Amino acid sequence: MTFRLPITLALLISTNLIFAEGMKQYEVSVTNITKGQTFTPLLVATHSDAASLFTLGQPASDSLALLAEAGNTDALTAEILNFPNEIGHVKTIPGLLGPGETVSFEIKGHHKHYMLTVAAMLLPSNDTFIALSSAGLPNKGSASYMARAYDAGTEANDQLCIHIPGPLCGGEADSATSDTDEGYVYVSNGIHDMGDLDPATYGWHNPIALITIKAMHKNEGKKQETHKH
Fold first, then answer.
1. How far apart are CA 122 and CA 180, in angstroms?
2. Strand spans (E) along 77-174
3. Of 31, 61, 64, 117, which residue is 20 to 30 A from 2 by alpha carbon distance?
4. pLDDT of 87-136, one tens digit each?
């Protein structure tokens, strides 16, 4: 079973499924370590090892394309909830996460759903997304991961603002497939000297985010999502 990720720029979706005994609470912190890229609202999910966001070298799903091109989590959320046995907790963390900023939130895990996936679009980009795919949840203490940028391969990387949504460019949110698309998911190679985007300002080198997962004690929890600058 596979699932993929989409996003709408100011959407909060939080879906709690039924957990058996053994449910655990985790605090997750995501830090944007790029110089000039912004993350759209984050789609996060705990799940079993039977679920995955994408396969490198293979085509992206339509719902992942919506995430990568438009920052829309609706379709991916609906898609992954079709597999309740594999999915634990799914939510979208609202707001944009700018360079150097950190957002912290809570999510639930379980002995059956012991992996975490996080994904969001990069702005400004044509179809690039940040992803931490199938990271293990710690039994105790904390674990930190470095997340990379991936290209969905569903839109040509012309770096023209007319093809890039968001507050900087204000272009179209998604595009029709064409023969100029790469056609498969790959590790993104950043911004190049073309189109409307200056590599010195908006370029990056992988990894692009630091993600820390902390197992919480029973007396902890019910904290609000917080942003730090």
1. 20
2. 87-93, 102-109, 115-123, 128-136, 142-151
3. 31
4. 889 999 999 999 999 999 999 998 889 999 999 999 999 999 999 999 99
Secondary element (H or E) of residue 16: strand 14-16
Our separate counts of H helices and E strands in the chain read: 3, 12
The residues spanned by each domain of the chain are 23-217
Instruction: Provide the pLDDT for residue 225.
Output: 62
**Cβ atoms of residues 42 and 103 within 8 Å:** yes
pLDDT score recorded for residue 229: 65
Low-confidence ranges of the chain (pLDDT < 70): 1-22, 176-178, 218-229
What is the predicted pLDDT for the residue at 51? 83
Q: Are 67 and 92 spatial neighbours (Cβ–Cβ below 8 Å)?
A: no
Per the rule left: phi > 0, alpha: psi between -120 and 50, beta: everything else, 175 is: beta
Please give the CATH architecture assigned to the domain spanning 23-217. Answer: Sandwich (2.60)
| 23's tokens | 């449910």
First-to-last alpha carbon distance for the chain, in angstroms, is 38
Q: Which amino acid is at 218?
A: K
Gap between the Cα atoms of 119 and 134, Å rounded: 11
